[in-house]
Amino acid sequence: MINKISANNINNYQKVSFGHGQETPNNLTKKQKAIILASSAAGMAPVLMGLAKHKGFSLNPVKIFKTPIKDWALFKYAPKEKAIQFEAPQIIATAAGSVIGGFAGGCIVDKQNIKAKKREVLSQLLGNVLVPVGCVASGAAVYEKYADKIEGVMPQLKSTKKAAKVFNKVLQKIPNAATTLGLLGIGIYLGNRVSNLINEKLYHKKVERDIKPSDFAPHVDDVCMATSMMNQDSLFGSKLGRIIPIALLVPGYETGIAQDK
């Protein structure tokens, strides 16, 4: 619901809540939500097809279905030159396709809330993709230069047992994990602030989109992106990168279901 601010507010803004921080469910049906999810996937399809073609994968449906699923473009994860790598440019392009698709689907099934979806486009692209990805990508580039020195100072067990070796590897990766979460948190916070500010300037509406602990649940896409980008040369990071296209359905879906409250 849109609530008017006191008349003594010279800007005469209206408060609007939408996106990740919705406290009440919207009134869309399961069918409408399914259409929005499908349209988000459809929006990503041309981008993913282009990335697959660039890596030499066939787009012929007959050839695709004759190929083992593990060797499909979206699921093949090694090596770099023979598989799609979801780094910053690829992530941004795929997310943009998802948001465009989700917006289109949302406008078709929920014409009463197009303005809210327009605001959510900006919030998703800035708050959920561009700023977080920018923070993580920049931080990852810096961290990579000093990774050996940073991880080298972590304490290690002297035992040669298998359990000790596993524990030592985990200890060495603690700085990486902490850096990833820190950069992601900064990116989400900055993205939220910037998108709120721009939305207010463009639509003259006070947007209430504060970050809450529960708001991090929809950021599974950001967690996958951040972890993959910080571990591009590891088998784990490469495998996790295969989840990114699925995770990037979230921004498009959130855009499509956005409504004024």
Give an account of the 3D structure.
With 261 residues, the protein is mainly alpha-helical. It is 63% helix and 3% strand. The protein contains 10 helices and 3 strands. The chain has helices spanning 30-54, 61-66, 88-109, 114-152, 162-172, 174-203, 220-230, 235-241, 244-247, 249-257; strands at 3-4, 14-16, 206-207. A 3-stranded mixed sheet has the order 1-2-3. Helix 1 (30-54) runs antiparallel to helix 10, helix 3 (88-109) runs antiparallel to helix 4 and helix 4 (114-152) runs antiparallel to helix 6 (174-203). It is globular and about 65 Å long.
Shape: globular
Helix content: 55-70%
Structural category is: mainly alpha
Beta strand %: under 5%
The radius of gyration computed from the alpha-carbon positions, rounded to a whole number of angstroms, is 21 Å
